[in-house]
Specification:
By secondary structure, the chain is of the alpha+beta class. 44% of the residues lie in helices and 24% in strands. The strands form 2 sheets. Strands 1, 3, 4, 5, 6, 7, 8, 9 and 11 form a 9-stranded mixed beta sheet that branches. It has a two-stranded antiparallel sheet with strand order 2-10.
């Protein structure tokens, strides 16, 4: 019954407006000076055609408003659903951007021009290894200025409570700038040259059972001492990163001296 009343009211108003428009058009023709002639009649006809649209648009808006506010509960539920959808999309976009930065953080902080990786590598923490001969083959290519070996491998960090937790040991030549810890909040990068020195992130203190700088632990039954603390270096797999020089990383992970996970290539200018 409500919709029938709205349609009937709309029809009545439309008829009244059309009748009013015809009256205006008739008055315009009757009052037109004789010397204007056909041109004035044409302008009056154009104005007559425009009149109904000017009256109909407010009716459409009015009808839409009545449709929206007739059932207030449904209108409120619709608005809440739209707002919730926008919030959900925003949260998902934030998670995506955060995960994207976390996955590529190591590559983003490495100034190498090229990465040489084992066949089938799917992620940064892939434990596959390359032979040292691949490094020398890469160095023999024209335009290559340096090839730096990097080791990325899993190991067990012994907790003070007696248990163990997995860590990702990252070994590199600390004299190069290819892959070193950044965002250092405690200690100094040069402290990693001290025997048994490692770098860990502040966010993993609780998981590693560490109190901070100077703490002593064991990795693969070998002594490790925290000499550098970083902030914000987190892994996508939530496994803590442990930075240390390349030779020490090989000892912590039981990797042969002639094996590495990646080779980071630097090219000459213009290559």
């Amino acid at each position: 019954m409500y919709w029938q009343e709205i349609v009937a009211s709309f029809a009545r108003q439309l008829r009244d407006q059309l009748r009013r428009a015809r009256i205006l058009a008739g008055n315009a023709r009757s009052s037109a000076p004789s010397f204007v002639g056909a041109r004035y009649s044409q302008l009056a006809a154009e104005q007559t055609r425009k009149l109904p649209s000017h009256f109909i648009v407010p009716l459409i808006v009015k009808l839409a408003a009545k449709n929206l506010f007739h059932d207030r509960l449904r209108f409120i539920a619709t608005i809440i659903g739209i707002v919730f959808s926008m919030v959900l999309v925003t949260v998902q976009m934030g998670l995506f951007l955060s995960f994207e930065r976390m996955v590529t953080t190591m590559i983003d902080h490495t100034p190498a021009d090229l990465w040489i990786a084992p066949v089938g590598t799917k992620c940064f923490e892939d434990p596959s290894l390359l032979d040292e001969r691949e490094r020398f083959r890469a160095m023999s290519i024209k335009g290559v200025t340096d090839v730096v070996p990097i080791l990325v491998s899993f190991a067990q960090w012994r907790l003070p409570s007696g248990g163990t937790t997995p860590v990702v040991v990252i070994g590199s030549d600390m004299r190069n700038t290819e892959l070193r810890p950044w965002n250092i909040v405690q200690g100094d990068l040069s402290a990693l040259s001290i025997p048994d020195a490692v770098a860990i992130d502040h966010s993993y203190f609780e998981r590693l059972g560490s109190r901070g700088l100077g703490d002593i632990a064991e990795i693969h039954d070998r002594r490790a001492q925290v000499q550098v603390v970083t902030k914000g270096i987190r892994s996508f797999t939530t496994t803590p990163y442990v930075f240390t020089p390349l030779d020490r990383a090989r000892a912590y992970t039981g990797t042969p001296p002639n094996k590495s996970t990646y080779f980071l290539v630097r090219l000459a200018v213009g290559s």
